[in-house]
Amino acid sequence: MIELENSIRLMKKEDIEECITMTLESFDDYENEFDTIKEEFEESFDKEWWGLPKYFVFENEGKILGMGGYSLSRLDWDSFEMFWLCVRKEYKGHGIGSALTKHREQDIIKNSSMKTDITIIFSCTNSVSEYHKKQGYKIILEKAGGKEVLMGKTFLK
User: Fold this and answer.
1) Whole-model pTM?
2) 78 and 85 in contact (C-beta within 8 Å)?
3) Amino acid 22: pLDDT
4) Which residues contact 44 (CB under 8 A, 6 or more apart)?
5) Cβ 111 vs Cβ 91: under 8 Å
6) Among residues 81, 99, 92, 84, which one has the least CA distance to residue 20?
7) Which of 40, 41, 43, 114 is deepest in the core (most CB within 10 A)?
8) For residues 134 and 95, is the Cβ–Cβ distance under 8 A?
9) In whole angstroms, what is the distance from residue 155 CA to residue 142 CA?
10) Which helix (H) or strand (E) is 73 found in, with range?
């Protein structure tokens, strides 16, 4: 049985390699992008800037089963972008992705300086858009290639 409570924590530098492996397993179109993803993850630890991405991992019995991140959007001060939601294939369907999404939403709302509303957006494939719709997200844009959509949700503070 996977414990969903108290299983999410901030990613540590020593988690990067395991998170990259899990990301490459989850996203087929990134199979040769190890160095690019590693650089992206490492930047969140190496630079001093308030707008850097924040990554969380879902850990159970010392093993990372899922991860996801977010950052302040460059589009607007009250918008945030979520990214890299991935769960190990053998653990999908156990609520890990939902727990990571909810945790990131709560962290964004708690740490945002916005006083009225916050918008969270992310890109995903059409194949997982139904999953995100169940969590209250809506398709706001279909990308030109037809395989991906931009989804969003607004929270009132």
Assistant:
1) 0.87
2) no
3) 87
4) 11, 52, 53, 54, 55, 69
5) no
6) 84
7) 41
8) no
9) 22
10) none
Q: State how far the Cα of 140 lies from the Cα of 47, in Å rounded to an integer.
A: 32
Q: Token pair 């490492």 is at which residue?
A: 42
Q: For the stretch 68-97, what's the b/e string if a residue is b when 16 or more beta carbons lie within 10 angstroms of its beta carbon?
A: bbbbbbeeeebbbbbbbbbbbeebeebebb
* Angstrom distance (rounded) from CA 107 to CA 42: 21
Helix, strand, coil share of the chain (percent; to 5): 35, 35, 30
Cα of first residue to Cα of last residue in the chain, in angstroms, is: 34
**Both tokens assigned to 97:** 């992705």
List, in order, residues 6 or more apart from 59 with CB less than 8 Å away: 7, 8, 9, 65
pLDDT in tens, the chain (157 residues): 677 777 999 999 999 999 988 888 887 666 667 778 888 888 887 766 666 789 999 999 889 999 999 998 877 778 899 998 999 999 999 999 999 999 999 999 888 876 678 999 999 888 889 989 999 999 999 988 888 999 999 988 7
The first and second tokens of residue 6, run together, are: 């108290």
